[in-house]
Amino acid sequence: MSNKSQTLMEIFQEILAASGNSSDSKSINETRILTALKEQAFKERKENIGSVLVKVVSDAQSKLNLTIKPEACNYCEGDFRDVVEAYNGIHGYVSLMVCTIGVLANTMNVAVLTRRDMAAAPINRLLKWLAVADVFVMLEYVPFAIYKYLVLPETLDFRYSWAMYLLFHMHFAQILHTASICLTLSLAIWRYIAIKYSDRSHILCTERRCSVAILTSFLLPPILCIPTFMVFDIHTKNVSDVPGDIAYHVDSDNQGKLYQINFWVHAVAIKLLPCSILTVIILWLIRALYSANQHQKNLRNYSACPAAEKMVKRQHKADKRTDRTTKMLLAVLLLFLVTELPQGILGLMSGLLGKCFFDRCYNLFGELMDFLALLNGAINFILYCSMSKQFRQTFRALLLQRHLARFLPPTASHSDSHNQNTAKTSVP
């Protein structure tokens, strides 16, 4: 007899024994159990006998005062659990610090990338909207972190207004974070096309297609998050014997098929699939960088006539600028991959292993995953400044006061700047 069948028989034997029918409990068998469950499922129009069994056991526990030993759940045990739980205790303070820095950094990203000499490149438009999405994610996370990690542990007041905000926070953050994923994926594909098909990039990488990519990145996430909208809702729970003493919380129905579908959509379609595509593109970009470096070495070793030497130097300068752009985008993509891949793996395992793994592992790493996601959005400003000369120059110009402008060397005219920007495809 299988373990599941044995467990079913033990439950029914305990129910019958507690009700005084011990003789009947000895004669019970697997066939009688399954037949009774199927008949009850047909009467109540349930999809499977599992939901009927849950109801039967729940009723028996309440009526007969039974205590059934829960199934052992030993996922995510070890010393690392203590380390993660120690971090969870300070996550509220850390997240508030990261959000404050991230909002300021991404606001500066938007200010720099919207300058006339920067906004001409389609890639910069993608980076700008990525910064906008990150700003709203962090701004919305601040009241959530303040109440959950600073106020709620002291008051233990699970009000309906808090449950409403928590539900809004869950959906809002999920939609905008998914938009960030779509924008990052668009950024990678855009760069891949610009390098792979450099001779046709002016045809393939147009302003109109960039606008379509940005619009799609914000319209697609609400569609992908529909299962989440349908699964999670506000529930109530009595916290004492006093009438009306109710705690409101956001929870899901973990018994339905929609619950499993939500995990698969979130883990595979939103996390793992983009990460897989990014991995392939990142490996290809690294290979392209290596080939470009070999090509530049060959050009430097090539002894040409003085006329051709100028052309070689000009080509070398253009290739160097392209390589800087690719390296910067590689850093952005790798940081994104390190952040999102663990979330996708945890979500997939939660869908495969069930609620036990979700409660023991996914919830355990929830705060750490939030920290990585917030850090990913906050650190891009440092990458841009460290790897883009044009970004640094534009940012420095924004910081300088007008009365200091006369001490600066003259800049290129608007027409010259426009002519240069039409030849550029990226930040550097």
From TrEMBL:
SUPFAM superfamilies per record: Family A G protein-coupled receptor-like (SSF81321)
Matching InterPro entries: 7TM_GPCR_serpentine_rcpt_Srw (IPR019427), GPCR_Dmsr-1 (IPR053219), GPCR_Rhodpsn (IPR000276), GPCR_Rhodpsn_7TM (IPR017452)
Gene3D superfamilies cross-referenced by the UniProt entry: Rhodopsin 7-helix transmembrane proteins
Major localisation: membrane
Keywords associated with the record: Membrane, Transmembrane, Transmembrane helix
Membrane spanning stretches: 90-114, 126-150, 162-190, 211-232, 263-290, 328-348, 368-386
Domain G-protein coupled receptors family 1 profile: 105-384
Key word NADP present: no
Location within or outside the cell: Membrane
Domain of life: Eukaryota
Protein family membership: Belongs to the G-protein coupled receptor 1 family.
PANTHER family linked: AT19640P, MYOSUPPRESSIN RECEPTOR 1, ISOFORM B-RELATED
Protein name as annotated: G-protein coupled receptor dmsr-1-like isoform X2
Native source organism of the sequence: Bicyclus anynana (Squinting bush brown butterfly)
